[in-house]
Amino acid sequence: MLSVSLSTSKPTTARADVLILGIRNDDDKGDHAATLDLLGFTGEKGQTVMFPSGGSDKAPVVVAVALPSEPTAEDLRRAAARGVRAAHTATSLAVDLHPAGVDEVEAIAEGLALGAYRFDTFKSAKKGADKKPVLKTAVILSPFARQSTATRALERAATVATAVNTARDWVNTPPGDLRPADFADAITAHAGTDVKVSVWDEKRLAKEKCGGILGVGRGSDSPPRLVTLTYEPAGAVAHLALVGKGITFDSGGLSIKPGASMQTMKLDMAGAAAVVAATVAIAKLGLPIRITAYACIAENMPSGGATRPGDVLHMRSGATVEVHNTDAEGRLVLADGLSLAVDAKPDHIVDVATLTGACVVALGQHTSGILGNDEAFGDTVLAASKAAGESMWPLPITEEMKGVVTSSSIADLRQHNPKPYGGTLFAAAFLREFVNEIPWAHLDIAGPSFNEGSAFDYTPVGGTGTGVRTLVRLATELAEAR
Ligand code: BES
Ligand code: MN
Ligand code: ZN
């Protein structure tokens, strides 16, 4: 990953291929005023222009990025990343975004590392993947460079950005290269020594009565896995359980998806990727909070052995569920994960899932839905998402949906609403049946988890790693609240 350091150098003397220069709204444009005017740079949000420095700076090329006069952390993350993407052929950067404090240094460092992300694993050398220059170093120019708090801020930024980029890598990996056992292995390898890992295979899942995960995984010749991560620091002040949807590919099963909707369905393990990456980051940061995380991993495929519409599944909780649509598989694997989370008796539960297309219809592609059973905890999660710079918005679990969830004529619960309205609310109402009284928030990341368009700000094409920063922030705040 990009290595970010700090320096008290002046922008004119910093040695680098490219100088990224923030121009605040009310700045006079300094030595470059005439050039910036010529290039039509007005300082409007999002604007980025590139020009040769002509020797006035040590760096041969300048990328000017617009900043508001009082930028938020998110403004700085985005500006830093826009600078990085404009300078994509450079190997070294100097970055002068005039941070007003250590928090701003941290945001800039995060933006740089997130904006520098690439996924080249499957590009062959012939296509020039390994001939393209790769950005190696960025130095943030700041008067705080020598303070130990700034050094720690850089380390935090690197830990969080590594976590986001790891989640992105997993989402981007082709579904044939990341089948359930592969994903479980990758998680085990990533967890290192700070976090304990246990993997349940299909035999253990049967012994543990995880009928939801097994029911979804039955159609695949690569059987399901349940991966549990535990981080138990001495002096933990709270216990947070995380549950992630880990469908390595969602074909829809026998209720098969049309081809076009299937194209991006390697994204369907983004929730599990986010909770795992966040857990490892929380451990690396040494936050005094206990985490138990469950990655519910299966491949949803059609076959002669697949679960049929009309089948009844015996869930881990003891409830029976009538399946109506095998493409509503996420709630089935999450239900078992939530039951396991409840058994661990945490103070809070958060699940993260690419659960419903309906959530994308409701909130668009850049905003996740927050639902749950506890308004105060929902507000805490929403505040964490704001502080982290991830867009989320609350949706209700309405009374209407409770009635439908319990309306199966042959089982305790029905899995799918025959009416196409409020699909996100129905899915959450179903999940709520498995969490009992524990304060719980459900994050539906179906929209933001994958960018089908072109790259913008720090968001690359493909997997985005959404959810990771909110979870790390939430853990930070829960650890401070006691
Ligand atoms: N994984 C999909 C949801 C999804 C859709 C994620 C688009 C990202 C982008 C989920 O398993 C699914 O298929 N949901 C169905 C539910 C329906 C059958 C009730 C959907 O949204 O159509
Ligand atoms: Mn589905
Ligand atoms: Zn799915």
Overall body shape: elongated
Query: Structural class, from secondary structure content?
Result: alpha/beta
So, the CATH homologous superfamily of the largest domain? Zn peptidases
Q: Number of helical runs?
A: 15
CATH architectural type of the largest domain: 3-Layer(aba) Sandwich
Q: Helical residue percent?
A: 25-40%
Annotation, overall tally of beta strands? 19
CATH topology of the largest domain: Aminopeptidase
Largest sheet data: 8 strands, mixed
CATH class bucket of the largest domain: Alpha Beta
- How many domain regions? 2
First and last CA, distance: 35 Å
- Name the average pLDDT: 96
Radius of gyration: 23 Å
What is the strand arrangement across the widest sheet?
Answer: 7-8-10-9-13-17-14-15
Any low-confidence stretches, pLDDT <50, length ≥5?
A: none
Bound molecules: ligand BES, manganese (II) ion, zinc ion
The amount of beta strand, in percent, is 15-25%
